[in-house]
Design brief:
alpha/beta, 27% helix
Length: 326
């Protein structure tokens, strides 16, 4: 389950409006066959990608190796895998879905392939998709739930909060000694991640001070994606120069205000002023720490966080932090 969790965190928020999910398959002797994660809404879920990869490893058949079309994979794996997985165990961070939406039900394919065991971390909070565990149990599959439950539910938190109304996260890049200004700080890999997330969010909130000083464009050019709508957090909208590049992005809506949007997936980028003003509304922080020290401005604020996950992003350390006040 730890492997499944680690893989899923690589795609946290990038699967919006779907949750991040990871899956692992082992054979009857406990040998690792596949590790996979859901990567994009509308594409195959984590369990199906893991079955695809395990199938390819066991058979040498590479026809499906790069396919992420859920309908094709469900159909082809149903026909090709036969009894290949009858002794296998599937570990998955979220209960396999039991309904047909943009993709077929994962529980249906798992049932047809006759897995021996399915180990589930968190139960699906979405009543429309829930029920996979019971379906698999009725099919005679050994099902265990609640494995690494706390960690799996933490992974799921952005999805749960968004379903209830809104999830807010603050993105920050800094040097080892906490400096946030003076040009580009984070690695290209980190900046590409930020641009990829910008294509998914409902609104990007940016502090007025940052807009005035940095004169940003705030687009998604590194991934050739759709630029987000922008809300400038300021009490003095008349002081914002309308020739700043962010205003020239085609199709973008730019608004001004002193409050956050009430619904959706909301990303905040800004300096100390925006952080201080919005600190009580921030659910998580995504922090990139670059491996150098420099002179400049840092944050002068007090806030406690839980460390949820950390990994490398290019040359940077990428930390997922949850406010202890939430």
């Amino acid at each position: 389950m730890s492997l499944a969790l680690h893989e899923a965190w690589k795609y946290q928020l990038l699967t919006y409006p779907n949750p991040a999910v990871g899956a692992v398959i082992t054979d009857g002797h406990g040998a690792l066959l596949a590790v996979a994660a859901h990567r994009e809404a509308g594409k195959a879920h984590a369990e199906i990608l893991a079955i695809r990869d395990a199938y390819g490893r066991l058979t040498g058949d590479r026809d499906l190796a790069v396919c992420d079309d859920a309908l094709v994979l469900h159909d082809e794996l149903s026909k090709r895998a036969e009894t290949l997985f009858r002794d296998a165990t599937l570990y998955v961070t979220l209960e396999p879905c039991s309904h047909t939406g943009r993709t077929p039900a994962c529980a249906g394919l798992i049932e047809r392939l006759g897995f021996r065991r399915v180990i589930i971390g968190a139960m699906d909070p979405n009543p429309e998709a829930a029920g996979g565990a019971k379906r698999l149990q009725k099919a005679g599959i050994d099902v265990a739930t609640g494995v690494e439950k706390e960690a799996c539910e933490a992974l799921l938190e952005p999805f749960v909060k968004w379903q209830r109304g809104r999830f807010v996260f603050f993105k920050l890049a800094q040097s080892l000694n906490g400096v946030i200004d003076g040009g580009t700080i984070s690695s290209e890999a980190s900046r590409r991640w930020v641009h990829a997330v910008r294509t998914k969010i409902d609104r990007l909130v940016i502090g007025g001070g940052t807009v005035r000083i940095d004169r940003p464009i705030l687009d998604s050019r590194l991934v050739k994606g759709k630029a987000p709508d922008v809300a400038i957090f300021t009490r003095h909208p008349q002081s914002i120069d309308r020739t700043i590049p962010l205003f020239d992005v085609p199709g973008r809506q730019v608004s001004f205000g002193k409050t956050l949007p009430e619904k959706g997936l909301v990303m905040i980028e800004g300096g100390p002023g925006a952080f201080a003003a919005l600190r009580d509304e921030i659910d998580w922080m995504v922090l990139f720490i670059a491996p150098f020290v420099k002179e400049g401005m840092g944050y002068n604020a007090t806030r406690d966080f839980w460390l949820l996950h950390q990994r490398r992003s290019g040359d940077d350390a990428m930390l997922w932090l949850k406010s202890r006040d939430q």
